[in-house]
Amino acid sequence: MDVFDAYEDDLEVIEIVEMGIPRQMYTRADHFYGLPELQFFQRFRLTKPTVLHLLTLIEERLEFPTDRNQAVSPINQLLTTLRFFASGGHLSTVADYMGMHISTVSRIIRRVSDAIARLYHHFIKMPQTLMEQRLIQNGFFDIARFPRVIGAIDCTHIKIESPGGENAEVFRNRKDYFSINVQAMCNANMEFTNVVARWPGSTHDMTIFNNSILRANFENGDYPNCIILGDGGYGVRHYFFTPLLNPHTQEEQLYNEAHIRTRNVIERTFGVCKRRFPVLAYGCRLKKETVLSIIIACAVLHNIARQMGEDEPPLPADINQHELQRLIEDGQIPEVNVIDNQRRGSEIRRNFITNFFGNL
């Protein structure tokens, strides 16, 4: 080695000792103005007008007090989070695309997801007035002539890493992977009206419903003359109807056909939401608390997209359509049928079938 090269190396070491390791500076592209509309829609899953509308709702929570240390602007924080929702859940890929360090991306995702999730009560809500209830019932009736339906309910599983600790195994579901079992109800326009995202993957769907505010509201009579439709994993109540296991008469067969076609809207809603935000299908490798915020945030964004009249965006180039569809279906884990011990609910369902489907 040349003596001068050795001398220069010593100077670099002395400089690092005295001044510290030099900061790595990243070049951040302007994706909002730099990308054409279609490419932007494909990579961030929302159109530019919707992103600007969303930004006005959460900007105050994302602003930094100063611009020191290359503070990330609110729009870039939002785009970073949307890019993560559109990906297979790899922070490094998002960091490279957005021109940030992976630790910065992780903090941004947690911060923005929490800000969006706080919009829950503005965009995910049950109908409050009689007119709103009637509109939803009419929407469901137009699907398969099933009357009085105010919502279709089901659960879907979102993959997570093992949370660790003594209770980690309660998050392992019947398909042998760790997950959050998310309960959701939607209207006929495929908008979420209720989302519960906090239960471990091993929890039965009926357990989630029995411990929900939704059940309490129906038990208290807040939604009179209204019906929820669910699959055979739920128990029958006077306001909650499930399909018949063994239909015999024509009216029972008509009931089952109408029930299945009407309830199918919640399964389609899950599919649309997971295709718009593939991270829900691929799963999240972040802390459990962050994952819960991400689930709610994606549900809020789904409703915003529906209300803004947005089409389903094309998949990003790095997402395989067939693999994504397989993962979406993998999240739907049918529950074993609940033994119907609620006689009153069964009698009401039987009378309902006779009155509404016996004369068709």
From TrEMBL:
Organism this protein belongs to: Zophobas morio
Xref: InterPro entries: HARBI1-like, HARBI1_animal, HARBI1_dom
Protein name per Swiss-Prot or TrEMBL: Putative nuclease HARBI1
Protein function: Transposase-derived protein that may have nuclease activity. Does not have transposase activity.
GO CC, any one term: nucleus
Cofactor: a divalent metal cation
Localization annotation: Cytoplasm; Nucleus
MF-aspect GO terms: hydrolase activity; metal ion binding; nuclease activity
Chief location of this protein within or outside the cell: cytoplasm
Entry keyword set: Cytoplasm, Hydrolase, Metal-binding, Nuclease, Nucleus
Annotated family: Belongs to the HARBI1 family.
Domain DDE Tnp4: 153-303
Pfam families membership: DDE_Tnp_4
Protein origin, superkingdom: Eukaryota
